[in-house]
Amino acid sequence: MTLDVLADADEAAARAAEAAGVTLVTGDTKVVPKGAADGLYITTSGVGIIAAGRSLSAASVRPGDKVLLSGTLADHGMAVMLARGDLGIEADIESDTAPVAAMVEAVLAAAPHTRWMRDPTRGGLGTVANELAAGAGVAVIIDEEALPVSPLVQGACDLLGIDPIYVACEGKFAAVVPADEADAALAALRAHPLGGAACVIGEIREEPAAVVALRNAFGGTRIVDMLVGDPLPRIC
Length: 236
Hints:
By secondary structure, the chain is of the alpha+beta class. The protein has two domains: 3-43, no CATH class; 58-223, Phosphoribosyl-aminoimidazole Synthetase, Chain A, domain 2 (Alpha-Beta Complex), CATH 3.90.650. Helix content is 30%, strand content 17%. It contains six helices and nine strands; from the N terminus they run αβββααβαβαβαβββ. The chain has helices spanning 3-20, 75-84, 101-110, 124-136, 151-160, 182-190, and strands at residues 28-31, 40-43, 66-69, 116-118, 139-143, 174-177, 199-205, 211-215, 221-223. The protein has a seven-stranded mixed beta sheet with strand order 4-6-3-7-5-8-9. Strands 1-2 form a two-stranded antiparallel sheet. α3 (101-110) runs antiparallel to α6 (182-190).
C-alpha cells in the first residue's frame, strides 16, 4: 500500500465526511499481504445523540400509515454485482452510496409523527419490510407499480433472475408515516437533491398480520417472504 493511495483514501474520506456533516476523529487501518485481500481496511465507529422526544420503532406503526421510499431500489447491489462478476453485461449502473442524515431530518421535520425508518441494505426492501411486519404484527402492502427501479437496474436484475426488492441499497431508506403527514414527508424528500425519485410505495393494514404482500396493477397480490440466503456475494 503506497503513501499516495493512503493519501487518496484520506482525501476521499474527508470529502465524504464533509458531505455527511460529520467529523472523523479516529480510525483503524489494517494492511494485509498481497493476495489476501489486496487492499486497505478502514474501520469507523459512529457516535451520536438521539434528540429528546424522538422515538422510532415498529411498535409505533399503525394500520392506515403510509410507507415511503426515499429513492430507487437496487442500484448499489447491482453495481457491485456487475463490477465483480465476469457476467458479460455492460450497464452504466452506479452505486447509490450517499449520506441520508439530511433527508431523514427533512422527513422528521415535515412529518413529526413519523413511526419507523430503516435503510434497506443487506436483504433489501423485502427483508426490512418483513422485519417491520413481524415486529409490528401488521400487514405491509406494497404497490409493485410504485416501486422505483431504474430501467438499467431492472434489466440487469431480469437477466440475472434477481428480484430488485431483495437487492441492497446504500443511500436510501424506507419510512412509515401517518397518512395525513405522507404528502408533507414526500414533498420534503423530493425537495432534497438525493430524493427526487422518492415515492409512496404502500400502506400498513391490520390483516393479514405479520405479512408482506406485493400488490400488482391488476389487483392481485403475492407474498414477499423473508429472504433466505443472499442472491449476491456479501457486499458490505
